[in-house]
Write a structure and sequence with these properties.
Helix content: over 70%
Distance between the termini: 14 Å
Shape: globular
Number of strands: 0
Number of helices: 17
Radius of gyration: 26 Å
Structural class: mainly alpha
Largest sheet: none
Length: 362
């Protein structure tokens, strides 16, 4: 197993390089880079994410980025020396291939640079936002798996019963409800919108969090997590529950299950001692994607609605503002985490079913 892990870790190097290269090429081709962003700010345009909703300032920046540099320098009335200083400030005085190679060298030393517009190091920004995303992603994934797997097993055992039909109706309805729409509804009903003020509306903790006891801090943190976590997990039950049910149904009618029952083994031992390991392989394979998906993508609208300043919101604002160091630093860290989680998911196969041996694969 050690040699397999070593090979997988070595394979991550070209994979990571390829992902960074492809995204670098795509981003370089996108209009409205950081130089144009700064020029637009000097000209008084609103280049923020909210300012772009109006459309007028954003279209101006896009038009400016598509013009030749000498053309917009003269037309905007800016000093060419100032333009050169801005390009040098952001490193755009070097050709693209040189900038990419310099970025790779810095990343090898875990130097992700400084944000163009936030006056902070990229690592510090990610550390600041990481607790929010970990809270959302970890709790959501754990709850989805802890509820969906037993529910899927129960539905497989009770296939065709009233319980199976009603539970399928409920989880399918939850899957059909958009998480952001449910979040707005819960705010109106339970967070002081129009009816009850039961749950807090924003943040991970209360203003007096530092003065609370340890037990009070835990309760306060969990109380703030109730609504956003509920919105994230309510749509995640259907896929995993039905996947678990179908996996168990496929295994229940196998010959080895019939043989185990013929030996007189208790039903629970047949179910959890024989069927469980084989049926759970398909479920485990989806764990890395589920964790990464909730951790870094699905929580964006939830972070905005509940005023949770996490990695999803950071990545979105950085992409909109063309804050390249934050974009590529986040991409690098997210990709490494994703590949490591995928490796952990593959190793979990061996824990669930010892018959699987990656060492013998060609």
């Amino acid at each position: 197993m050690s040699s397999y892990i070593f090979r997988r870790l070595l394979l991550m190097i070209p994979t990571l390089f390829g992902i960074l290269l492809i995204n670098f090429v795509i981003i370089q081709a996108a209009p409205g880079g950081p130089v144009e962003q700064m020029i637009a700010k000097l000209e008084g345009f609103d280049t923020s994410a909210t300012g772009r909703i109006g459309g007028s300032s954003y279209s101006e920046v896009q038009q400016m980025s598509m013009d030749e540099s000498s053309d917009y320098r003269g037309r905007r009335g800016l000093n060419p020396e100032l333009i050169k200083d801005i390009e040098k400030l952001y490193g755009f005085d070097k050709p693209a291939h040189e900038r990419f190679w310099l970025m790779i060298v810095n990343y090898l030393h875990f130097d992700f640079g400084d944000s163009f517009f936030r006056d902070a190091k990229v690592v510090d920004l990610i550390k600041e936002k990481l607790p929010v995303s970990i809270s959302l992603g970890l709790w959501s994934t754990l709850l989805v798996y802890l509820i969906s797997i037993p529910l899927g097993i129960r539905k497989a055992v009770k296939h065709g019963s009233r319980f199976d039909i009603w539970s399928s109706t409920i989880i399918t309805t939850g899957y059909a409800i958009p998480s952001f729409l449910l979040a707005i509804l819960l705010i109106v009903l339970l967070a002081g919108g129009s009816y009850w003020n039961i749950f807090p509306l924003r943040g991970l903790t209360s203003d007096n969090f530092a003065q609370l006891s340890l037990a009070g801090k835990i309760v306060d943190y969990l109380w703030h997590m109730v609504l956003p976590i509920f919105c994230l997990v309510i749509s995640g039950f259907a896929t995993l529950t039905l996947l678990t049910k179908n996996s168990f149904l496929d295994e229940i009618h196998r010959q080895y299950v019939q043989a185990a029952r013929a030996k007189g083994l208790p039903e629970n031992r047949v179910l959890y001692g024989h069927i469980f390991r084989n049926a759970m392989l398909v479920v485990i394979s989806g764990f890395p994607a589920a964790l990464i998906g909730i951790l870094f993508t699905n929580a964006l609208l939830i972070e905005i609605i509940f005023s949770l300043d996490g990695l999803g919101l950071l990545g979105y604002e950085s992409a909109i503002n063309r804050d390249y160091p934050v974009v590529f630093g986040s991409l690098f860290i997210f990709t490494v985490i994703g590949m490591l989680v995928k490796l952990a998911g593959d190793l979990t196969y061996v824990l669930v079913d010892p018959r699987i041996d990656f060492e013998t694969r060609n």
